[in-house]
Structures are given as C-alpha cells and as structure tokens.
Design brief:
The chain is mainly beta and 364 residues long. β11 and β12 form a beta hairpin. The protein is built from 1 helix and 32 strands. The chain is globular. The N and C termini lie far apart (42 Å). It has one domain: Methylamine Dehydrogenase, Chain H, CATH 2.130.10.10.
C-alpha cells in the first residue's frame, strides 16, 4: 500500500506539488524583498512543467523542445536527455535518484542521475505522431507521482501505476485524456482528474472506488489535506472539496477555469489560481478569505514557502510573492508567461521557468 506523506529524506519539490499529496509546502523560505537573478540558461523551447530539485541540489526540468535537462545550482548544464516529443511534464525524483518524466511521444521515461536512459514505457496505443484528440489522449502530459514503495503513478490514456523496473503494475481506463498529475492519499488511494469532467479515486490495486462529476474538464491536479479532503479545480470555474468517500463537501466559484492545482497552507488555507486572473485564498469550509488580482490569467499551481509566502506565476509574464494575509510582497518580470510552479531550495534560491524558454535562478 502507498502512503501519502513525503518520502523520508526526499529533497524539496521532488515532484509536482512537492510531495505525493501535492501540498506545495516543501522547500525553503521566500525572501521578504524581490530577489535578484543570479543566472538563467536557455532550454530551447517553452517550459510547461515545473522544475524539481534532486537530493544533491541538481535541478531537473523539461521543455517543449523535447529534452529533459539537469543543471547544477550554479547553472551549469550537467546533461540533456532527448525524449521523443515535446514535454509538459514536471519531473519526479525518486529516493534512489532516478528521474521520471513524461513526453508527448506517449512514453514515461526513467533516467539515472548521470543522464542515462534506464527505460521508457509506452502508455496507450495512439498514433504518437498524429493530430487531434484521438492521438493526444495518450500524451503523458502530467508529472509522475512516486509512492513510498517506489510505484510511479501517471496519467495519459488512463491512470497508470508503473513498477520502478518499468513494468506496468495496473491501468484504469478512462473515457478521455488524463492530463492531471495523480495525488496519493494516506490509505494509498490514487486521485486524478480527467477530461471527461470527473475526478477519479482508484484503490491501490487499480480498481475504481468512485468518480465525482463536475461541470467541465478536470485538467487540474488534486491536492489532499491532512484530514483526507481532496481539493480540485475544474473548467466549470469551481474549486471542489471532496471527502475521501466521494461526497462533495462544498464548491467555490471563481470567475474562470481552474487549470492549476491548489497549494495548502499550514493553517489549512487553500490557495488556487483562476483564469479570471486572481489568486484565491479559501478557508477549509469554502469561504473566500481574500483574492489578489494579476494582470492576466493564472494557470499555474501556487507554491508555499516555509515562511508561508505564496509564490504564483501568471500569464502576464510575472512571478508574484504574496503574504498569507493577501498582501503583495513583490513581483518579478520575466520575458514570457509563467504557467509553472517555482521550486524553492532549502537556501531560499528560487528556480522558475516559463514561456521565455529559460530556467531562471533568483536569490536575495
């Protein structure tokens, strides 16, 4: 059975959302004032997957150019592994240092810390070079999530569980594409959204426990609170709170689609962005505590630093730092939209990438 907590000794932001529950609360402190850029490196294409940090501080990131990259904390490129197509995937780093990432060539890749391909597994039987929904439904867009037993959970043409040796453990077929990154509950239940307007709950053996219907595609990745409540956004403009039994506890409307996941504050506050251009702070009972406006859509998943500062990117080409009371602390201008979550190292260095096709490092 797979537990929900972070892997013991795992690095900050070792997978999408920082841990298997996608709380977003891993990493170091964010600075009180706008940090300075200490380096940036080109990635050859738009970055839609968030950077992740390995046990030794190595930063891993994918791009639409089709590569998985590894950089030192000083910005030196260690290696690049070509994948078969562009990638939207946030890499995940296992306890043994193996890096997992998905690609639009319908494969999940496993890569050694030295940049060597361990294996790749095709997920689905679509034409990987075709066009349209019947081809793209097999794309491995979402980031992999790693359970404490090393099992890798990922979407694509259904919800998949893969053993660390690259063999398929199980697959739950879904009617439409799964772009959502799965989250793992304390009892091993796997939760993932689907473009058939539903959130699915899957038992550790791969059997479906339930599905909850929403009013739109669920491309957003779910997050799980300490009490087991699942939070997930939908293209019907709402954030849903769902009990582990599959009952909707509440839903809170925003003014636009919710494509990014939610981050969870230490006090239980849920932070989520919307295509209406606002970051929402929502209480555990569904009440909106505050909202902060950006100048364009927010499709990114927020991250919460150890000092409770919320970092979120927007499609106005800025990264925002917001205090837990909703005060704008600072913002950074980049050269393109920021639809990714910044990774925060334990020393406070912030790594962020986006549509400007670069990985940036900022430090106070």
């Amino acid at each position: 059975m797979t537990a929900a907590g972070p892997i013991a000794g795992s690095p900050p932001f070792a997978m999408f959302g920082g841990d298997a529950r996608h709380t977003g609360r891993r990493g170091g402190p964010a600075p009180a004032r706008a940090p300075k850029e200490i380096w940036k490196v080109p990635l050859g294409g738009v970055v839609a997957g968030s950077p992740t940090i390995g046990p030794d501080g190595t930063i891993y990131v994918t791009s639409h150019e089709g590569g998985l990259y590894a950089f030192t904390p000083t910005g030196t490129q260690l290696w690049k592994l070509p994948m078969g197509d562009r990638s939207w995937s946030t890499p995940a780093v296992a306890q043994d240092g193996t890096i997992y990432a998905g690609s639009d060539d319908d494969h999940l890749y496993a890569v050694t810390p030295e940049g060597k391909l361990k294996w790749k597994l095709r997920l689905g039987a679509c034409d990987p070079k075709g066009f349209g929904p019947e081809s793209s439904r097999c794309d491995v867009d979402g980031g992999p999530t790693i359970g404490t037993d090393g099992t890798i959970y990922v979407g694509g043409d259904g919800i998949h569980a893969v053993w660390p040796d690259g063999t398929l453990r199980w697959k739950l077929a879904t009617p439409e594409h799964v772009a959502s990154t799965p989250a793992i509950g304390a009892d091993g239940t796997v939760y993932a959204g689907c473009q058939d307007d539903a959130l699915y709950a899957v038992a550790p053996d791969g059997t479906k426990r339930w599905e909850v219907r929403t009013g739109g595609d669920v491309d957003a990745s779910p997050s799980i609170a300490a009490n087991g409540t699942i939070y997930v956004g939908s293209d019907d403009d709402a954030l849903y709170a769902i009990t582990p039994a599959g009952q909707v506890a509440w839903k809170t409307l925003t003014g636009g689609d919710i494509r990014g996941g939610a981050a969870l504050g230490a006090d239980g506050t849920i932070y989520v962005g919307s295509h209406d251009g606002r970051l929402y702070a929502i209480a555990p009972d569904g009440r909106v505590r505050w909202r902060v406006a950006a100048a364009d859509k927010i499709a990114a998943t927020p991250g919460v630093a150890t000092n409770n500062t919320i970092l979120v990117g927007a499609q106005d080409a800025h990264l925002y730092a917001i205090g837990p009371d909703g005060t704008l602390l600072w913002l950074l201008a980049l050269a393109g939209d920021v639809d990714t979550t910044p990774a925060i190292a334990r020393d406070g260095t912030i790594y962020v990438a986006g549509d400007d096709a670069h990985l940036h490092a900022f430090r106070p």
